[in-house]
Amino acid sequence: MNNNKSTQTFGTQIRKSPFFRATLREGCKGFSVYNHMYIPRSFGDPVQNYWNLVNDAILCDVSVERQVQIKGPDASKFIQYLTPRDLSKMKVGQCKYVLIISNEGGVINDPVLLKISENEYWLSIGDSDVLLWAKGVKVNSNFDVQINEPDVSPLQLQGPKSHEIMRTIFGNWIDDIKYYHHKDFIFENIPLVISRTGWSSEFGYEIFLKNHNLGDRLWDIIMSIGRPMGLHVGHTSTIRRIEGAMLSYVADMDIRNNPYELGLERLVDLNQNFIGKEALKNINNDGVSIKFCGFEIDGPPLANPSDEHIDITYNSEKIGYITSSVFSPRLKKNIGLGYFPIRHSYIGFEADTKFEDHKRKVKIVEKPFIDPNKNIAKGIKN
Prior knowledge:
Number of helices: 10
Helix content: 10-25%
Strand order of the largest sheet: 12-13-14-11-3-15
Mean pLDDT: 96
Strand content: 25-35%
Largest sheet: 6 strands, mixed
CATH topology of the largest domain: Gyrase A, domain 2
Distance between the termini: 61 Å
């Protein structure tokens, strides 16, 4: 007798999050690997996951956003040495989006930085080995710091209903957490850090669990209270992140790309002392040859989100490439992100590409595609 029931198998060399068993119980249908860990990538229809995020709220296991802890008397100096963003006015309880730059000026990572105390920081990293990079920098320096990966695993609770859900679970003090700020909290004897951040372009929170043994308990409490209020189990939405023009490390950029190509020069202060300063000075002086852009793609709706690099041509000559693309059910358009030569990187420029055996036109438009001032994530009413 044939048994066609599909099964999932998981290798022991890839780490599992504290919420791994909970996501299996919730019916996760697919995982990928990110920062050497399994990340849930499907609970069914990605379009329904998108609408759950946009209209209600979703809980996502994002433990793959590993933390790199920098702690010690020279922690502030060391962090500033890692990034070109000016951190001199950063206060305890703040978060900042930063870039980690190589000596050649390339982007190693684009983490969110949390200032935990005067002498302690967390880098909440994308998919690259920042822990090893930071340890290597320390070995070749005289900074008095300790660098490790703490027992910290984040969840994301994102969407328009997230505020009321968080208030109901944790209390009205949640109102006091400003955008890109965080607070420590002990909940039901579970140690947490809660921040007003997230990788969704929607209003939301990240809940950093500080004891991996309590993952199942925390998940079950949040879902038991939140589900009747409109909380769905979910995963990070490719559709929404492209609508918000949020960069995905490896998909949209890597160590070969620099901040100026990405339009992130606001995160570079050439008056600071940091790794890659001379390279970024030269790039700034010389200018760049390509620019990261947003564009619409004509033709029938794309069947699936894609982070496959696809050529862009003009007069039959390859001039650039698409990094991420998707059909937006809200805009009812295909949209994408990618690189164009500077001379062609203006709004309205049109070129050619090929998707799913269809020749298509791409036209550069303003990005983000929705909510360009990030008022939704900031909680600002229009």
